[in-house]
């Protein structure tokens, strides 16, 4: 038990159920969040919170702990049951007096994991935080973690325990909201055959609802809501290529596209009409193409936000329309902060893991928004997904990882890489990213630009080394060079 990881950061809390994540840990974290809300956002609005869970097996017990703890803080709770993380964001906005939300989810982590994500609405000490539900900014997350570490909750007596109500309409509320925005973009995907893999979790009902509203012919794989994963839940090519899986189903059913959600449906991977894995990096790039191409002249000067580990495809798409890209630290909260800083110019944000943030829909990564944007692009252009993806300048990304006992253990590696490549452009907002305008011959032939990003993960006990270059050989050469520096610097 002592060796089981408990991850705390801008992405919330995650741990191994029954080991690092126990009822008392969950109660402490929910109590800390509740106390933080009462001292800040609840004073602007009302002591009302929305909660849900991602549907994974055993999650109901965790959500019960969360509900009890938040009510014991004196907060009134609206329980959405099994719902996606972005659905919670949309519903938190629908309940305008709501001050925050909590979701029991471990996102893409395997079945033995679970966790808690927070959403907030405004805060007295955060400028330009707006009124929409969003992940806590870094400073807010640090305040919540500090309360968790010190056990700073605010339990109340029987006469002040919060109320509990339930809302079973959340999935369709979310679906209708996104469908209405998609219609404003133009295009009509009615009649398209679409296959969706929801890993038997929270995305099934909302995805089916959205696609039905758009007139698509929908085939749902792993959509029974049982919480039993049919494969490892992260929507990677390896996990989707299993026998009978999404990559087989799309061409087998003569579908135009396949969508793969993770358990809390804030990420989306794409499968084209041939059954090829288009992947998560293309999700954001294609969503950007969809938004900017539909925006017309207003796209010139628009701002998109993406994290430091996201492919430069987003830069290429944006440049074509005269838009700019703000780069942020990894983590949804950091991308949201980048969008908020851009104000009205912000049109889209996201990460290379398939997480798309469409501010008009919600300031939460949303697989439904990504679906709607990609389908709109396909229907407006009349082009298949394979052709749309091929039209975006492509690069090779190579990713490696190494175990870490703690995030602090990555610091020597980060420092070594920053020092070794100090003559290049570096960004230390999150670990270190090094950019080459022209790659040296030692990284493989062909020239061109490239980058490497070395950082500790927010969600897993690992250090990531990610590189992108025009060719896989070059990207691998960059990773190998960084790993040699890291090995020598330890």
Word description of this protein:
The protein is α/β, with parallel strands linked by helices. 37% of the residues lie in helices and 22% in strands. Helix 1 packs across helix 3 and helix 10 runs parallel beside helix 11.
What form results from the Cα inertia axes?
A: globular
- pLDDT below 50 for ≥5 consecutive residues: which ranges? 124-129
Total helices: the number is 16
Supply the helix-strand structural class: alpha/beta
Q: How much is the radius of gyration in Å?
A: 22 Å
Kindly state the percentage of residues in helix: 25-40%
Q: Let me know the average pLDDT.
A: 93
Would you count the extended β strands for me?
A: 21
Kindly report the spatial arrangement of strands forming the biggest sheet: 1-2-6-5-3-4-7
Question: What topology emerges from the helices and strands here?
Answer:
Layout: E1 6-9, E2 12-16, H1 23-39, H2 41-44, E3 48-53, H3 59-72, E4 76-82, H4 85-94, E5 100-104, E6 113-120, H5 138-150, E7 164-166, H6 170-185, E8 193-197, H7 203-213, E9 217-221, H8 237-240, H9 246-252, E10 257-261, E11 268-271, E12 277-279, H10 281-295, E13 303-307, H11 313-320, E14 324-328, H12 332-342, E15 346-351, E16 355-357, H13 367-381, H14 385-390, E17 396-403, H15 411-420, E18 425-427, E19 432-436, E20 450-456, E21 462-469, H16 472-489
Parallel strand pairs: 3-4, 3-5, 4-7, 8-9, 8-10, 13-14, 13-15
Antiparallel strand pairs: 1-2, 2-6, 5-6, 10-11, 11-12, 15-16, 17-21, 18-19, 19-20, 20-21
Helix pairs in contact: 1-3, 1-5, 4-6, 6-7, 6-13, 10-11, 10-13, 15-16
